[in-house]
Write a structure and sequence with these properties.
- By secondary structure, the chain is α/β, with parallel strands linked by helices.
- It has helices spanning 36-46, 61-66, 71-79, 83-90, 110-116, 118-121, 142-153, 213-220, 231-238, 259-270, 277-287; strands at residues 5-9, 30-31, 34-35, 51-56, 98-103, 126-129, 133-136, 156-162, 172-176, 183-191, 202-210, 244-248, 252-255.
- Strand 9 and strand 10 (183-191) form a beta hairpin.
- Helix 8 packs across helix 9.
- The structure holds uridine 5'-triphosphate.
- Uridine 5'-triphosphate binds at residues 9-16, 26-27, 55, 104, 107-110, 112-113, 130-132, 257.
Length: 288
């Protein structure tokens, strides 16, 4: 069992970034010079994924254009002898990787967005990556770490990280036997619990490997927290049929769905950008 398909739900409204996201997709916002969605795609491809499935809506055209060829731009770069830039633009979608797009008619939540991909996944395990969670995994990306857990456990795998007790109401929170273990079987999962109801301090971040059983469970899932069809609720049902593992991945996650997380990621990535790092460090010193 190999994981070769990944779903990128990109059909949300991005209300926390209005007005920037009124006409531009949140997932196309750049961290230095690369859009968030490209970081997520690169992470998936590094983990061996070759089929990318984007769940989009009518205002997310820019994402399709980003992963498509742009003949005008390419021939202009060629004419001007800008070969490095041309190679970079052509390499956005690596050789052997394909894209498919499917529309979510209305933003009914992450669970609903994942269900939209059912016809393209069929009966295989698949990955889900939320581009607004940017994860700097270092040598081994978060999804690579998850694929290796999946290969051993042959079960769904969910990425989790330690969160502050006061933050539980912003996350899906897992119940596990031993919170200190890097990989553990999940006993339960709950969406956005109040701190006194949270089963642990392990919050779910936007990376999943799921078995196809999730689709029939999503079909039975009704609108939950926030009036949306929650992926968390379907995972809670999945636990009645299969084991699901939580992975405390190695790496730093930036919540780019919030302004603060986005700014933090911008600074961290600028400080390790080969062309910018030195000048940017000086620039920052001027501020502090
Ligand atoms: P978020 O809740 O973080 O994103 O969903 P959002 O809804 O776009 O943003 P806010 O909360 O209004 O600011 C996480 C991911 O799931 C996708 C989003 O595009 C985002 O990448 N999503 C969410 C969908 O594809 N469909 C939905 O119905 C909801």
């Amino acid at each position: 069992m190999r994981v070769t398909k990944a779903v990128f739900p990109v059909a949300g409204l991005g209300t926390r970034f209005l007005p920037a996201t009124k006409a531009n997709p949140k997932e196309m916002m750049p961290i230095v010079d690369k859009p968030l969605i490209q970081y997520a795609v690169e992470e998936a491809v590094k983990a061996g994924i070759t089929e990318l499935i984007f769940v989009t809506n009518s205002s997310k055209r820019a994402i399709e254009d980003h992963f498509d060829s742009n003949y005008e731009l390419e021939s202009s770069l060629l004419e001007r002898g800008k070969h490095e830039l041309l190679e970079m633009v052509r390499g956005i979608l690596p050789e052997g990787v394909s894209c498919a797009y499917i529309r979510q008619k209305s933003p009914q939540g992450l669970g609903h967005a994942v269900l939209c991909a059912k016809q393209l996944i069929l009966n295989e395990p698949f990955a889900v990556l939320l581009a607004d969670d940017l994860i700097d995994g270092g040598d081994s990306s978060c999804m690579q770490q998850m694929v290796s857990v999946f290969q051993q456990s042959k079960s769904s795998v969910i990425a989790v990280q330690q969160i502050a007790t006061s933050e539980t109401k912003k996350y899906g929170v897992v119940d596990v036997g031993n919170q200190k273990e890097k990989v553990t079987k999940i006993l339960g999962i709950v969406e956005k619990p109040q701190p006194d109801k949270a089963p642990s301090n392990l919050g779910v971040v936007g990376r999943y490997i799921l078995t196809p059983k999730i689709f029939s469970l999503l079909e039975q899932t009704t609108h939950g927290s926030g009036g949306e069809i929650q992926l968390t609720d379907a995972i809670a049902k999945l636990l009645q049929f299969e084991s699901v593992h939580a992975l405390q991945f190695e790496g730093k996650r930036y919540d780019c769905g919030t302004k603060l997380g986005y700014l933090e990621a911008t600074i961290a990535y600028a400080l390790k950008h080969p062309e910018l790092a030195d000048d940017f460090r000086l620039c920052l010193q001027g501020f502090v």
